[in-house]
Write a structure and sequence with these properties.
single chain; 485 residues; mainly beta; Porin; 2 domains; 16-stranded antiparallel β-barrel; 2 helices
Length: 485
């Protein structure tokens, strides 16, 4: 209870920060004298400008109003890639509303040049620290190199996420026509050269340890069109691909004696995916306004297969699992709060996935896990539950929903409080059950900020209610640094 009390206190501070910007002005009672209470002030407390009181007469009735120029200009969040500048006047600037934290600054002008977002190269490194440990892991490092480029008219687009043992590449080319049709290519490999185990009831299940991986490539046809607000990542696309995958698995030293593995095989897939992104993103690429949504539908069949099992509990029948169907969808919304400035945002996300009962196995199932939340358009599809290991949960069906309040202290510093809920039917969750219906929740507080050498720092602390470990609640700290080149 003490942990959740801490979160309530943090949330209260956020609400105080928000409400500190609200103040009602009665025009009837406004004079140049009491305007001093509302006007922007310099370091001495003197209003920077006095109001212009305008009187108008209509049918013998006088009406008094304040000219629009007299009001301080509302705060505008700088958007990603845009150029902008502002003046910082000499004096004392309050950093945190309602809190006694001020900075003394010299008079200066800050100017940000427009940035070409059509080509991005970035390195992301970080770690997740979980306590108590999950599956024997306390520190979970991660890292990847990201590269994206596209032509001026978006008819040719290339993206690569490279992590060595896990790599994903996408390419689309529509330069051969003017109707939006495009040829698409996708390739990926997940070939981790060490044994992998499932986490059951928060513990490492050694008897499930196997070395497994896959390599796949796909080609297909798609349709692409830009949408408002017409940024480089504002678009609607539909793609249908045929993908050929090679799937392999083998036992390890700790593999259970009663484990029976399926044969290595080729997997054929028809993959339909669609994406819509009409988000404005802020200076550090966080969703600021608008919506994004998408989905994937996969129909797959394997060349070779057989009954397989991981102990006499986790048994999978060849006839049920040789061919499979699965689908998933997501949405992201970045919303304004009425009567509040652009510093205040509400971010809502939803992710859902479904497979027919008994159609899933360890190699084909949907997955839900932890890691940093994605703001880039092609990473929004990942369902994230804070504090979990990467791809920790095997799911037959799932629903993950989050609601976040974010406050913008300045153009490069953002704080957030987020609640996340998960429910569904999960495999390998309980030691003596093939699949289990369950639900859970987590609370997170974090900061996203510009950092040294033009990098980006993400820090988040989370508490879960016991879903991750199937009993004991726990905490996690996630830290990542991204550097663009």
């Amino acid at each position: 209870m003490e942990k959740y009390t801490l979160f309530c206190l943090i949330l209260s501070v956020f609400l105080l920060c928000a409400c500190s910007e609200l103040e009602y002005i009665n025009l009837k009672d406004t004079t140049e004298e009491n305007w001093k209470h509302y006007a922007s002030k310099d370091s001495t407390g003197t209003p920077i400008s006095s109001p212009r009181i305008i009187e108008t007469a209509s049918e013998g009735q006088k009406e008094k109003k304040i000219s629009q120029e007299s009001f301080p200009q509302p705060y505008k969040t700088p958007l990603a890639g845009s150029s902008w500048d502002f003046n910082m006047e000499e004096g004392e600037v309050q950093v945190l509303p309602v809190l006694p934290i001020d900075l003394d600054i010299d008079e200066r002008e800050v100017a940000i040049s427009a940035r070409d977002r059509s080509t991005v190269a970035a390195l992301n490194l970080g770690t997740s620290i979980v306590f108590p440990n999950v599956g024997g892991d306390t520190f979970v490092p991660f890292g990847a190199f990201f590269y994206k480029t596209q032509s001026a008219d978006s008819s040719q687009r290339f993206q690569a996420i490279l992590a060595g043992v896990a790599n994903f590449v996408d390419y689309a080319d529509g330069s051969w026509n003017d109707s939006g049709w495009e040829a698409v290519f996708h390739a990926e490999n997940v070939t981790i050269p060490v044994g992998q185990t499932e986490t059951i009831e928060g513990n490492r299940a050694n008897f499930t340890e196997i070395e497994t991986g896959h390599t796949s490539g796909g080609i297909g046809l798609g349709w692409y069109t830009p949408v408002a607000p017409y940024h480089v990542d504002s678009y609607f696309s539909v793609q249908l691909l045929y993908e050929l995958e090679y799937l392999y698995s083998s036992g390890e030293d700790e593999t259970g004696d009663d484990v029976i593995l399926p044969p290595d095989t080729f997997v054929h897939r028809l993959h339909l995916r669609f994406r819509w992104d009409s988000l404005d993103r802020n200076f550090i690429e966080l969703p600021h306004k608008g919506w994004a949504f998408g989905g994937d539908v996969i129909l797959a069949w394997r060349d070779r297969w057989r009954d397989h099992q991981f102990s006499d509990v986790f048994v999978f029948d060849k006839d049920d699992t040789k061919d499979y169907f699965k689908t998933s969808a997501y949405f992201v919304g970045a919303l304004a709060i009425p009567n509040f400035s652009e510093r205040h945002r509400v971010i809502i996300t939803g992710h859902a996935g479904w497979m027919p009962a008994q159609n899933w196995d360890r190699f084909s199932a949907l997955r839900v896990g932890g890691g940093p939340p994605g703001g880039e358009t092609n990473s929004l599809y990942r369902p994230i539950f804070p504090g979990a290991l990467f791809n920790q949960f095997i799911a037959e069906k799932y629903l993950v929903f989050s609601a976040e309040y974010r406050f913008e202290f300045n153009f490069f510093l953002f704080l957030h409080v987020r609640a996340t809920w998960i429910l569904g039917e999960f495999g390998f969750l309980k030691l003596n059950q093939l699949d289990t219906e369950d639900y859970g929740s987590a609370l997170s507080v974090g900061v996203t900020s510009g950092f040294l050498w033009d990098s980006l720092l993400y820090f988040e602390y989370s508490l879960d209610d016991g879903f991750i470990r199937q009993g004991e609640s726990g905490s996690s700290v996630l830290v990542s640094v991204s550097k663009s080149f």
